[in-house]
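Lecture 7 notes. Example A: sequence first, then its structure tokens.
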Amino acid sequence: MTFDLASIRADFPILHQEIYGKPLVYLDNAATTQKPQIVIDTLRHYYEKDNANIHRGVHTLSERATKDYEATRDTIRSFFHAASTKEVIFTRGTTDSINLVASAWGSANVQAGDEILISHMEHHSNIVPWQMLCERSGATLKVIPMNEAGELDLETYANLLSERTKLVGIVHMSNALGTINPIATMIAQAHAVGAKVLIDGAQAAAHVPVDMQALDIDFYVTSAHKMYGPTGVGVLIAKQAILEAMPPYQGGGDMILMVTFEKTQYNDLPHKFEAGTPNIAGVIGFGAAIKYIQSIGFEAIEKREKELLAYATKLAQAFTGLRQIGTAKDKACVLSFVLDGVHPHDLGTILDREGVAIRAGHHCAMPVMQFYKVPATARASFSIYNTEAEVDALFAALTKARDMFA
């Protein structure tokens, strides 16, 4: 469709309200995106018309719910260009997906003497599960360094790779910096030494297209709520051969074919990794959110979001006392910064009184804060429904905060 900002904003009912008497300026999209009316309506329709458990029922409600649930699996397969719906595993979100891989794949493939590589800019969700796996297995965790701009040191990365490398866990787009990493090159280099690659796509999936097959990705993980969908649901997309060789992550209903007290026969993919009653409404809502993204198209999304980031960056560069954190050449949607004399938490509170919602803190990326020697940053993050006027409101509020602490 043609990018019509007014109509897109009209799709998001939450945006049309006041906070402390000021129009809401929502710039916390890296934490969670707002939901279009079509997603809200889809959730309501499920609970009003189709609420039933899936896969097990032969009655009409169950059949309708199952049909919509599995239709989302195919929507995701197409969206990410996966080879089969068998490669699409529904989870509780990015964190759950990474833990699934670290537990099921990691326990079967990583042992003492092996190495796992992650980068300095990872979210805690792509650090802690690998630390835990290394503690269990005796493997070693190694870190790909980054430079002051917030770009990975690819020369050091190449030198860290070896026959001991079992897995590379890398964020596609940094939540704290906005950096978009060159995953195509990094995946090819990892595969050259026989390593598998997990890409954390939580920040990227709503902003840039992903082709699982063209990029030859082993594991890709993301969350619906970063993609205009519901919270509490996400996806692991992985190569079928890898998933078939992995043991189940959890035991329970729906991930089995036959259970006796002596032995259990596990279900086929993708159900082997989906134990218990899932977030049925969330998955169906996720499908509606992806279709919403597709209706706009990545070409229009990328163009619009680059315009917003360029506009905000220009104002930031001219703003006295503001230091940007993360200035990579290839970045998107995120403006992280510190303001002289004002703690980011105070800044967040002051801006809230002006109706401007940003994020202040370590953004679940403490090693990034340690690298830049700051306790926290303020982060404004943009989406398709944001406007230049809202960016102006952000900097007007920042001016008030600066003057207040002068």
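Example B, a different protein, same format:
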Amino acid sequence: MPDFYPIARRILFSLDAEAAHHATLAMMKTADAFGVLGQLAGLDEGPDPVASREVEVMGLTFPNRVGLAAGLDKKGEAISAFGNLGFGHVEVGTVTPMAQSGNDKPRLFRLKEHEAIINRMGFNNPGVPSMMENIGKSRRGFRGILGINIGKNKDTPNEGFIDDYLKCLEGVYQAADYITANLSSPNTKGLRDLQSESNCRELILRMQERREKLKGENDGKYVPFVIKIAPDLAEDAVKALAAVFSETRIDGVITTNTTIERAGVSGHEYAKEAGGLSGAPLTEKATEILALLRSEMDDAIPIIGSGGVMSPADARAKFDAGASLVQVYSGLIYRGATLVREIAEELE
């Protein structure tokens, strides 16, 4: 079946990056509603070729090992569409207790020569209540696992950050299959300061305590809780967090978020733009952090490998370094949906 994405990409890349993002989601939802999304994406006809390759992680049954990283579907409005592209899990958000518009535009930049993206979106999202409404509509027909990525509002001081995460936990619990705490985005001032040992320990314990209450209120439903960490942590900081994660028996960890380093894109016209860098320049660094965490953390705690998964070989490297699942973001934008199936085949 022909893959129309290279043609669509040329058109989309002629647009402003954020405008192209919104146009892509709109087209995906429309194509999905008419049942032609798979055909336009160049995917095989007939039964989903990766639907039977199930894997158990965090007590959940994932249709395959490939997921969509948070940040592409910030509003939770295209879950079924992404599922029909072959993703075994879709992570939506980051969502905050109250809606916020994010940082000033422009805030999204393509570095095409490097197959990279810089974003400083700033947790632009509709807030928990609206997100839940969107999920109720867009999840219909989705057979995979739904992760919901949560964060604090920009105006919430760091001293009270846990309250925002608890509000999000309560608001999304019923809809989520797992919940991710985003402490590692570089685009909310001071957020990464929350990745200290003491902050992470307190957050995990408070979230676990509140989860027990919510579990009782939701017919015993247990929702795994994970934390997403940055790739810019020093080795000692990663080791310290590994000890905290092992001590608290967290359900899982995602490595990694975007990087603030620019070594891999030095000289590019957008290299000095503030924000997090994702894509190919992040691949090696994210995998190194994954391997370090895996070597220091209890083997029973799974890792989801994210950051620079641009090819089946990149996914294999993360799998070999100790990941149980992988997530794609920039790779989807540069390579298209056929990459999802290729990675699933490789990890099988």
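Note on Example B: The CA atoms of residues 28 and 34 lie 10 Å apart. The first strand starts at residue 55 and ends at 57.
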